[in-house]
Structures are given as structure tokens and as C-alpha cells.
Specification:
The structure is a homodimer. Chain A is α+β, with helices and mostly antiparallel strands. Chain A has eleven helices and 42 strands. Chain A has a domain of about 250 residues: Rossmann fold. Chain A has an eight-stranded mixed β-sheet, with helices on both faces. In chain A, strands 12, 13, 14, 17 and 18 form a five-stranded antiparallel β-sheet that branches.
Chain lengths: ~750, ~750
């Protein structure tokens, strides 16, 4: 038994402010430790245990991991499982497996058992006798694993087909050591191939789609996507590989892999939904109708497994129909309701059925200008708007057992903070249960009586609290110390400035150089993203900044970031103001930031640099060429150059199709501005980028050559849309060098 | 009649040295005018007229081109055809064609008619009545045109098949406006496809092979290559194209074209030779035997059209058999002789039959250490070595009508000069007919009595002379003025230094900065090539240097170039000393140059830069990484990085196959040295390079990323092995900027 062990550890942090703050970060520190040892420490695997008022987390005791349980009522902690005991059970079951250094991610089933997965198999750990049992398994090469806990069914995909394993049974002739194995008895579909796949994510992860399989409530049915891509253009990705110089092997020409990439305005893929009925062992196709290029989103089963709901969005993305299908026959029953918008509608959350009254569900909609919750009955009638105000409801946490209170997260009006709210469903009144500003994330106990909360803010690295359901603090579970306490301090300021058209208040983050002296003149590095579905600035540790930006501040740069219109968590109008003209209003807002910078006496206006990736690469390339006298140096990674080369789902939402918006596309096509470039601009691209295709920067470089414009270029062979892994240190050293040499 | 008009124009040059030499070149000047207005002027289309002692050239009169004829005996010039008169005949024949501004390249048939080709058709201009007649034509898309003058047959290739047009006849249903047209009656082969082609160059232009069709002496037979590439690896070249921003068109993914590229040690293509007999209208395959991957080189007909000769080289390139085949049946008759060498033999010149005694032929061989001429009889017996000494015979010019004297070009021992020699075939004694040092090129009149000579040297921009057969000067035809006389002067020095091992004398070219001051310290730019079959330094205008190097000298750099061992025109041992170890001795020789530079008081040894392309890119990358403390800045264009990725013909000659020379390949694989890089290195590549594949630099960049090495990179989308055309200005500006910013 350990009582408040972790709180004690955490408090050590507060005693360390007497360290001399003289150390400087290196690029390597910032990149490779920025999310590990130099990030605020976490309380690992914090979660509630079903059927109890206890929660658990993983911590270390004498350097080895243990699982600790704490009772929320008594606040007594119990160290219930060591990694040694876990491993003893593990190696007993699997003689050939090695012991683990760390617990896999565990999920409590009840107070005496938890589930975990390892190497494509799912297991149950029984705490009472410390034994492990195999629940289900998939071949090592399987992807898209989806485990259904009430039936222990494991859906997975392999070679474009869908499979479901039950209870870990394998074919007698299965031999995983020999490589990829098809388990015929698991096969749900058989005709998958290179252009038709089953059970995989569709529509390139837009519309909140993150998976391709959807078990019904009790696991008796499985809805899944079918994706047909034969009609979509091919794009080849080059595989650059090093020769093995140690052996006598020969070289061979670079080979390619094929990607189906539908570009704006072109032929799109076609999705369908199928249902497999485990009792009847039968596949049937859901009878969606309409344009085969429409989007089938937010697939959701009724709690009784009788009906399947799909939010069907037209390709133009301005009309969403929430449709109901028979879960047994797949037949269309009715459209519950339709949402339209002159710009676009973007359903991202499936229906959420209200406990104790399954004829009602909650639906997210931005129809009043902010993402809010609405109560509907299953006929499709709106009964009530549940939440209101200039705040964005980001997600539902849970609903209490009686169905009286619903907990959700929502942002503050300025978008910087995220709070936990408690909604009284009957009166439709919400109460914020947090007191401090910052980014709060709540986990609610099964009985609705307690909240486990994680908090971070610009002044709080990371803090874990136990509270009651109304937000009254019961105790601090863990308080991370400042992970960069030994390093030179740079002041971080979060504030807002008005947009030039006075219509919006724009969030700004500045990091002042180490040893800041307001009588000096500093160069500025503007870090930009600027696209939808992202927010660079939050009231969280470092203001949401990457540690590399902090490193650059230590190196003597003022670091500046502004979330322009188009970015998220500020409401619909703030985001969709850029519709059909990506890169126009965003640039105007960024220039408001530049004007603010130029008003500061300590800023050297002749030494402004800008850096961004992806949409941020589009922005930095735009800023270097649309207003060529403003920035001296720019770096653009994986930038969109011409939206006609970007994919259908994202592009057409914001830009319509090129055929209907030639002016918008023309104005946003950065090759048209290449000739204006005056400063130093470095473009960077991963050669295997399957999001923003390599051809964007190759096209731009070609245009620069054609126009006689000197520009710099670098590629990361084999890397996709971002440079991750150990090579990220190289990337950030490259970018650092470029600014240091030229800014 | 114009007498010595051109000599007079030429002499103006000597009067211009009083111009103020203050102008500085720009990169644009150096690149775009370096081979036009800032190059020494040429006497255009200088040539002898058959059946006469007259020669002709094209010049301008009142801004318009005229053809001038001069009688070598009387030296009387006659302006015989204006461009207007030519165009009048031209537009009379082809009503739809526009008038030409310049004469096409003409070839005299006799004193009253010349041939020319235009847009894949061959024409005869009759001077007496000023009319033009079509001789033969090929479709606009045809390639590999080969015109046979005695029969007016025109061989060409289209869609991998071979065709021959006779007398311009076309199929009745042929309609060129509709695009690519197959003229069925012209078809010689029918089964050509993407992996089997006919009539095209084989073996990637190595072994002196520059074409794929070989008409017999009187045009009655046609030998041609068949190339099978199905067994060769595919390599994809990316087509990067700009979107048309003016229209509403959609974008589409980058597409690719396929290249068959056999890499060292891998499967090679297979060549065969076929013969088409025009009288019998019959194709037959020449019965070559042996390894299907052997090289079939130097195809040559006997003067009586009865026999076909092929120099057959084994894939290992160390055994050449000169073989004789029956020109009617294709059957093998005999091997005339065999040449072997422990390193390699490289036949590059076909047999040359002696006039008046067709049973004898001359053969080029390096067997005594220098390329010399040997007389053989048609049984294959060597009768006589015709030339000797430490000089390289580069080519035969002609043999006089009586077969007594043969004229050839040969280099001086130091390789810097090239002279015209007159060989008495009976006594095998050669006489150099030139007096001045420099690069001489001679054209011999049909009767052997006169020589038209072009001369250039470091002090002579370009001069054209008329001489008698023994070299006695009759008159100067044209003397180009110094094309850069108005620009600041930079002193060019040609000299030699000993190699470190004292075994060789290495030619050096230095260009000193403008306003050179020996008390100052200058940075140095080393320009390097260093590979076989090339020589950077000759006793010619600017010492053989590109005008951009002169520009860099004007910008304050000492420009230094050294022809290391491996380079041409210095004899066999000098060239093949690098065998199996490319990049080893070459680097040692370059470092001898560096040591020389460091011995100069006016050189700043901390500011050395190096630049090269192709083999020169291999050299500059090597110099930056094998001796990382020597050079501060390097630029490597289209560099070979790992010889295992380079093509079979070239690589295996110098390196053997990787399986048999793993150490040599390993030592030359530059990815092994990437980690050593200390200075700034910029790699540049044309994305469609079909000689040194793009994967060379992409592999190197990947290795640098893996090793944490910072390096710079740039690509020229769509460009092949060099950046030509208008974009070359961009390339040289980019390189200039890189040296200026970093050196």
C-alpha cells in the first residue's frame, strides 16, 4: 500500500526552481527529447475501473513498472501488479515470448481482470490467479484491428479483405513463421484486390472517419466499408534504398509503389457499406442510393442493433442527410433530417444515444455558428438545443448511469482553454466544473460520482486531479515538474490582436529570446500553420509550442505565431471565412501579425523569417512571394502549391471543384507568384509524401527554373508527409542552419 | 565576285585591342553567349566541292546569307547563291513552307548541285537552274535518319521499326497532318516493339557506336542493329509538368516513362545485326555466335559490298575479335585477328580500306600504348605499323586518289595540341604539316593537293587557312577577332606538374583573377572532370575553358583545372591506370594539384572550392569527403555515387563486374564517405537524367540524412544528364551563388 506516493514525487518539482537556469537546449534535445524527457511527465494509463469507484495507473517502484489502484472514496492506493508478476504469467502462456519492460496498454474489464493487446493478439489478464488467456488473434501482417469486447471478436484486414477472428482459433495449417497467412475460416470477404478493399478507412480520414469496421452494440453484426478505387488516378511513390555496401550484391533501379490519389475535380473513389451478420453468417450491402461519389460518414448502430445510421454527404459537401437503414436487410428506411449550408457542412461525430431512453439521440451541429449538442428523437425531430454560446463543444465524455447528466469538453470563446462541462439534460443547462484556466481533460467514473482530470496550461506543465462530479477537488494525484527548469528561461506570452478588417480577434503566441533586452533589435521567426482543423496556440504548456521553437528563442530569435481565420475552435464563421479562397484571408491575418511585430521597438523588421509545414508550407511560400518585401527568409515543408493537385475530400470542401472556382484556384496557385520571390526560400519535401504529393514542390521548382528564380530545395528520401523518427533531428538541424545562415 | 572579303573582316580583330578592357561578364553573358556572340567567330559550312579544287562557305552580305565559292588555285571568290534565291526555289517547291533565314547545312554533290535536309526530308539544289528536287523523306516523327547518296535511300526508325524511303515516294493514304504515320511500303522490319527495336544505336553509344544503320558502299545492302531489352531492368523517369493555370483544366498525377537501364553486373541487353538486301528484298540475320551479351561494334562493309565486318567484343571487354561475314548469306567466314589486354580493349574505329588496293585495310589499335594505325591484309595479317611514337592518332581525314598519302589528326605528346599529319603509306613516314602549336583540323581537297585548315590555340581565337598538301600556307581565309576583347582580361596559363608518384606529367590550366595582384590572397575554384574519354585542357581558345570559368576569374577567383590520369589523349597507360579503382588515382592526381596551389603565395588555402559534373560530380563529391579538410565548398552535378548503379558498358570496362571487384566498388561507393563531410556540398541532378540516374543523388541524400550530415541539394525537373537550353543560365547562377555565399 502506498498512500499519495505520486503526489510526493510530483512535489519535488516545486523545489527545483533554485537550479541555475543557464543551460541551453540543442536541436537534438529539442527534437528527440521534446516529447519524452523534456516534456512534462505523465501519469501513465490513468483510467477508471468499471463496476467500481477505483481507478488505476502505471508507475514505477524501484525502477520497475507497477499497476496501482486507488479507491476514489477512501483514496487508498494499492500496488496490485508488478511487471515481474505480469511477465511471469506472460511467459508462462507464450514460452517463446520475451518478458516486457513496460506494461502494454491495459483496459479494465472489471475489478479483477484487464485486457491488453500485443503483436496483433488480444489477451485477458485475470488478477485473482494471475493468469493470461488468449481472447483473439490476427496474423502479424494484419491491419485495421478492431476488437469487440462482449463477443471477443477481432476484426482485421489483410490483402484488402476483411476477416474476423473469434476466440483466438487458428487454421490447423496456419504457420505464421512462413510469413503472411490467410486464415480462411476468418474470411468475411473474398473478392478484395488492389482496387477494391474491405474494412479499411475511406475518404482519406476526413469527416471524422478513422476506421472501416463498426461492430453493433453487442457484437452480433459488423458494418464495414467497401472502397472501390479502380476509377482513381494512379500516383507512383519512389522507393529509394541504399545499396548494401558490405556484400557483393548488385544494385537495381529504383522501384515504385502505387497510390490511388484522387485530385480535386477529378474522378473520386466510391464507397459502399456492407453488413455481416454473425448469426446468419451472411454479407449484405446497405442500400445507399445517390451519387456513387457521395461520402458515407459517421456509421452508427442503434443500441438494439436493429438499425444502421449513416450521415450521407453529397460530393459538393453542402448537404448532409442522416439516413436510417434496416440492420437486418440493409434496406433504406428513411432520412431523419437534412442539414445544408451555402459553404459546407462537415459531420464529424456519429449519433450519441441517450441512456435510459434509446429513442433519443444527441447530434453535433455547427448550425448556430458553433459546434453544439442537439437532442433528437429517432423520428428525426429536433427536441432541444442542449448547449449554446460562443464555445465549441469538442466531444462528449460520457453520460451518467441514470441518464441525467452528460459530461463534455468545450473550448473557451477565445479557443485557448478547454473545460469539462456537466450538462443537466432535463434543463439543458451546463456547468463548467473547472476553476483554473487551461486545457482540461476529464475521465468520469462509472457511477458519475468522480472525475479524474488532467490539466495543463502555460504555467502548469501537467497536473492530475481527482474531483467530485461538480468539480470539487479531492486531491492532486500528480504534478509534473517543469521539465526545462534547468534551461535558460524564455518568456512566453499569449494574447490576441484584432484582424485588419476588425472582424476577428486573432490569438498570438510570442516567445521572447533568452536574456531578453528590450533595447536590442531581434530577428523574428514566424511559425505558421494557418489551415483548418488545427490550432497552434492553446493555453497549455509552452503555449502549445514545439520545444524547437523554444530552442530558437534561446538562440536569440523572437518566436511569433498567430492563428489566422480558417483555424479551428473559434466557431464556424471564423473557420469558413476562407471558403473558395484559401490563402487570401489567412495571409491578411498573418500580415496583421507582421504589422504588430513591426510596431515593436525590439523587432528588427528587416530580419523576419517564416517557417511552416503542409498548409503551413503553403502559407510560408505564399508569404515569401505574395508580399516579397516582408520576409527575408522562408522555409516551407511539404507545401501545397496548387490545390488542383490536392485530394478531393479536403480540397473540394474548402475550394469547391476547380471547374466551378477557376479564379479561387488560380489565385491560390503559388506557381503564379514564384517570379516575385526576393528572399531566400527553402522548400523541403518527403519523397514518399502520400498526403501532399511530391509533385507540388517539383512543379514549383520547375516554375522557379523557368522564371529564373533562385530558390533552395531539399528532399527526405523515403519520408512521407512529415519527417519523423530519428531523421527529424536532421530536418530541424537543416532548418536551423538555414535561418542562422540567412536570417 | 569578292576577293578576300572575309580576310579583311577578320583583320578588324587585330585593330580592336585599343578598346578599354573594363567590362565584366555576367553569368548570363557567359552561359548564353559563351558559344555564340562571345565565342570566336566561325567560317560557316567550310567544305570542299567534289570534282573540283574549289571550296565553299556561307557568309553574310548586307546582313543576308550567301554561299561563296573560292577556287583554291586561283583564289578567286564567287558569291554563287543568295538566301533569297535559295528561298525562291524552296517556296516554289513547298508552297506551305516559310522562307528560311539561314541556309540549312549543305553538302556538295558536284560543282553544280548540293544536298540539304530539312524537317526529315532530303533535297537536291540544282545550281544551274536554281530548282530544288525532293530526294527522300521520312515522317516528321521519324528518328535515326541515315541518307545514302548514291541511291537516294533514306533509312529511318519509327516506333522501334526500321524503314527506308526511296525517292520521296509516300503511301497514297499518308496524311502527316494527322500525326504519326507509318509508311507501310517503307517498312524493313515489322516486329519492333517496346522491348525489341531495329535500326537504333546499341550499347548506349559506347565503342564509337553512334548509329544503328550501315549502308553498303553503293547502297545495295543495309546492315542494321536489332536490340532486345526485355531482360533489362526497367527504370522510371518522372514527367514533371506545370498545370495550365490560364484554363480551368484539372491536374493529374505525375506520370512516368520507362527506360531500360542495365546496371553493372546485372543482365544486359542483347544486340544482333541484320542485313536487308534491296535487290532481293530480303532480311537475314548475321550469324554472330557466342555470348548473347557480347558487344557488336564497328560494323563495316567491304568496298565490294560482299562482306560485312564486325568487331566483336566479349562482355568482359578484354578480347576483341575482328570477324568477317558473308554479306549475302550472313554466314560467318572467319576471325581476321584477335586483340586482348589484361585490362580492356576498346575498338572505336571501323576498318579503313586503302584506296586502289581493296585487299588491304587500316586498323586503329592502342596495342603499343598509343592509338596508332596498322596496315592489314584481308586475311587478317598485320603488314605494317604505319604510325608510331608518343602521340595519339585521333582519326583519319582522308587518303589521296592515288592511295599514296593518308592524312590524319594526331595529338602532341602532352595531349594539348592536335596536328594534321601526312603519312606516306609506302615508307610509313609521317610529316606534320602544321607550323604553329594549337588545335588544327584539316579538310583535304579531293585531289589531295590542298588543305583547308581551322586553327585555334590559347592565343588564337580561331583562324582558317588555305594550305598546300605539305602545309605551305597559301592564305588566311578568316581570322576571328578576340570575342571578349572589351572585357577585363584574365591571364590563362597552361603548364604541367608532376604527379605525386612522379610517374606522370599532369596538364594544368590556371586562370588568374582580373587585376591580379600577387601580394593578395585569392580563393580558388577547382573545376574538375577527371573521367576517361575527356580532356578539359587543350591548347585552344581559353585553354578549353568554358566562359563561365573566365567569368568566375573576373569575380576574383583563381580558376584551376588539372587533367588527371584516366583522361584521354595521353596514351593507354595514362588512361587505364585507374582500372578497377575509379576515383583513387584520379583523386591523388587532383591532390597533387591542390598541393601545387597551396605552394602559391597568392592562394588562400582555407578557401578552396571544387565543382564538377557527371564523372566530375563523382570527383568533387569524393574530394569533399575523402579528404574533408581540403575543400571548403563543393558543387557536384549529376554525380555517379555508386558505380553499381551505373550502366554496364562503361562501368564494366573500367571496374569489371561488382561480383569480381567488390573492393574496388566498395572503395568507390561515395555513400561510404558521406559521414566525413565537413564543408558545404551542393548536389544537383536533372530529374530525368537517363545517363547517371537520379537515384544516385537520392541515395546519397538518404545516406547523409541517415548519418546526420548536413548537405545541400537541388534538382532540375525534366532535365536529363545536363541542364541545357535557357535553364542553363539558372544552373550557373545557382552554382555561382553557392560559391559566392560560402567560399
Amino acid at each position: 500500500m502506498i498512500r499519495k506516493l505520486l503526489l510526493a514525487i510530483g512535489l519535488i518539482g516545486f523545489t527545483t526552481s533554485t537550479f541555475a537556469q543557464t543551460k541551453l537546449l540543442t536541436v537534438e534535445d529539442a527534437v528527440s527529447k521534446g516529447r519524452t524527457t523534456l516534456a512534462p511527465e505523465r501519469l501513465m494509463q490513468l483510467q477508471w475501473i468499471p463496476q467500481s469507484n477505483s481507478f488505476s495507473f502505471v508507475t514505477k517502484k524501484q525502477g520497475k513498472e507497477i499497476v496501482v489502484i486507488e479507491n476514489a472514496t477512501t483514496q487508498i492506493q494499492d500496488s496490485i501488479l508488478s511487471i515481474e508478476d505480469f511477465n511471469s504469467a506472460w511467459t508462462n502462456l507464450n514460452k517463446n515470448e520475451k518478458a516486457m519492460n513496460r506494461f502494454p496498454f491495459i483496459t479494465w474489464v472489471n475489478t479483477s481482470a484487464f485486457r491488453f493487446s500485443y503483436s496483433n493478439a488480444y489477451y485477458l489478464f485475470n488478477l485473482s490467479n494471475k493468469t493470461i488467456k488468449l481472447l483473439a488473434k490476427a496474423p502479424k501482417e494484419a491491419e485495421d484491428l478492431d476488437f469487440e469486447p462482449s463477443t471477443n471478436r477481432l476484426a482485421y484486414t489483410l490483402l484488402n479483405n476483411l476477416f474476423v477472428n473469434e476466440n483466438g482459433a487458428v487454421d490447423a495449417n496456419e504457420n505464421e513463421a512462413a510469413g503472411q497467412v490467410i486464415s480462411k475460416k476468418d474470411m468475411i470477404t473474398k473478392d478484395g484486390n488492389s482496387i477494391v478493399s474491405y474494412g479499411k478507412v475511406v475518404h482519406r480520414n476526413e469527416f471524422g472517419i478513422t476506421k472501416g469496421t463498426f461492430f453493433s452494440t453487442n457484437g452480433n453484426k459488423l458494418a464495414y466499408y467497401q472502397l472501390s478505387e479502380g476509377m482513381v488516378s494512379d500516383y507512383k511513390l519512389m522507393n529509394v534504398s541504399l545499396n548494401d555496401t558490405a556484400s557483393k550484391n548488385l544494385s537495381k533501379p529504383t522501384d515504385f509503389e502505387n497510390l490511388k490519389y484522387p485530385m480535386a475535380g477529378n474522378k473520386s473513389h466510391q464507397a459502399n457499406v456492407w453488413i455481416y451478420d454473425f448469426k446468419k453468417k451472411r454479407n449484405l450491402q446497405v442500400a445507399t442510393t445517390g451519387d456513387p461519389e457521395q461520402y458515407l460518414t459517421n456509421i452508427c448502430w442503434s443500441p438494439d442493433e436493429e438499425y444502421l445510421y449513416i450521415a450521407v454527404l453529397n460530393r459538393d459537401q453542402n448537404e448532409m442527410k442522416l439516413q436510417m437503414f434496416d440492420g437486418t436487410t440493409g434496406q433504406f428506411i428513411k432520412t431523419l433530417f437534412t442539414e445544408t449550408h451555402p459553404k459546407y457542412v462537415e459531420p464529424e461525430k456519429p449519433m450519441y444515444f441517450v441512456k435510459n431512453d434509446l429513442s433519443k439521440f444527441i447530434w453535433f451541429s455547427e448550425k448556430d455558428g458553433y459546434n453544439h449538442l442537439y437532442l433528437y428523437n429517432n423520428k428525426g425531430d429536433q427536441l432541444k438545443q442542449l448547449t449554446k454560446g460562443k464555445m465549441v463543444v469538442t466531444d462528449i465524455i460520457t453520460i451518467d448511469p441514470k441518464g441525467a447528466y452528460l459530461y463534455y469538453h468545450a473550448t473557451s470563446t477565445d479557443g485557448l482553454n478547454k473545460f469539462v462541462y456537466r450538462l443537466d439534460l432535463k434543463s439543458a443547462t451546463s456547468t463548467c466544473i473547472n476553476k483554473l484556466e487551461g486545457q482540461h481533460t476529464g475521465l468520469i467514473s462509472e457511477d458519475g460520482g468522480y472525475v479524474l482530470e488532467q490539466l495543463t496550461s502555460a504555467s502548469i506543465p501537467r497536473r492530475y486531479l481527482l474531483m467530485d462530479a461538480k468539480g470539487k477537488e479531492i486531491g492532486i494525484l500528480f504534478n509534473s515538474i517543469n521539465p526545462i527548469r534547468e534551461y535558460k528561461d524564455c518568456r512566453i506570452k499569449l494574447f490576441s490582436i484584432p484582424s485588419t478588417d476588425k472582424l476577428a480577434s486573432l490569438n498570438v503566441r510570442m516567445i521572447l529570446p533568452a536574456d531578453f533586452d528590450s533595447t536590442r533589435k531581434y530577428p523574428v521567426l514566424v511559425y505558421v500553420y494557418g489551415g483548418p482543423h488545427a490550432q497552434m496556440i492553446t493555453n497549455s504548456w509552452l503555449g502549445g509550442a514545439d520545444l524547437w521553437l523554444y530552442y530558437m528563442a534561446q538562440q536569440g530569435y523572437v518566436i511569433f505565431t498567430l492563428d489566422n481565420r480558417g483555424s479551428m475552435n473559434r466557431g464556424l464563421e471564423f473557420e469558413n471565412a476562407t471558403f473558395r479562397n484559401l490563402g487570401k484571408l489567412e495571409i491578411e491575418d498573418q500580415l496583421a501579425g507582421v504589422n504588430y511585430l513591426k510596431s515593436l521597438k525590439y523587432v528588427d523588421p528587416s530580419r523576419l523569417g517564416v517557417y511552416g509545414w503542409s498548409f503551413g508550407g503553403f502559407m510560408s511560400t505564399s508569404l515569401m512571394t505574395k508580399t516579397p518585401d516582408v520576409f527575408k527568409v522562408g522555409v516551407a515543408g511539404g507545401p501545397v502549391i496548387d490545390w488542383r493537385m490536392y485530394e478531393i475530400m479536403y480540397t473540394e470542401r474548402y475550394m469547391d471543384i476547380p471547374q466551378n472556382n477557376p479564379e479561387g484556384y488560380h489565385n491560390a496557385d503559388l506557381t503564379n507568384y514564384a517570379k516575385n520571390l526576393k528572399g531566400k526560400l527553402l522548400l523541403i519535401h518527403g519523397t514518399n509524401d502520400n498526403v501532399v504529393l511530391w509533385q507540388h514542390t517539383l512543379t514549383y521548382i520547375k516554375k522557379c527554373v523557368d522564371e529564373g528564380v533562385l530558390i533552395d530545395y531539399f528532399v527526405y528520401p523515403g519520408h512521407e508527409h512529415n519527417v519523423l523518427g530519428p531523421d527529424r533531428v536532421h530536418l530541424m538541424r537543416k532548418i536551423t542552419q538555414y535561418f542562422k545562415e540567412n536570417l
